[in-house]
Amino acid sequence: xxxxxxxxxxxxxxxxxxxxxxxxxxxxxxxxxxxxxxxxxxxxxxxxxxxxxxxxxxxxxxxxxxxxxxxxxxxxxxxxxxxxxxxxxxxxxxxxxx
Length: 98
Fold this sequence. Notes:
The chain is α+β, with helices and mostly antiparallel strands. It has helices spanning about 5-20, 60-70, 80-95; strands at about 20-25, 35-40, 45-50, 75-80. It has one domain (about 5-95): Trna Endonuclease, Chain: A, domain 1.
C-alpha cells in the first residue's frame, strides 16, 4: 500500500473510531480481492471496505469480490481518496442516527 493509500486508511480508522466503532485490517489467505478493512459500527453494522488513493484502480478480483459480498446482502464499499472516506463517514453517521 502506497503512502497516499496509507493516509486514506489512517483517515478511515480515525474517523470510525471517532464514531465509536472499530476497524480491522482484513487479510484472507488464499483469497484474492478481499477488501482491506472490516468496519464495525456501534449499531452492530458490519461493512467491508476497500480503500484506494485517488487514481488507484480496483482490480478485477476486487470488483468480483465486492459483487459477491453485495449479493450476500453485506455492505461492501470501495472508497477513493479522502473525499470517499469523508462521504462514507457521513453515511455511517446517518445510519447511526436512524
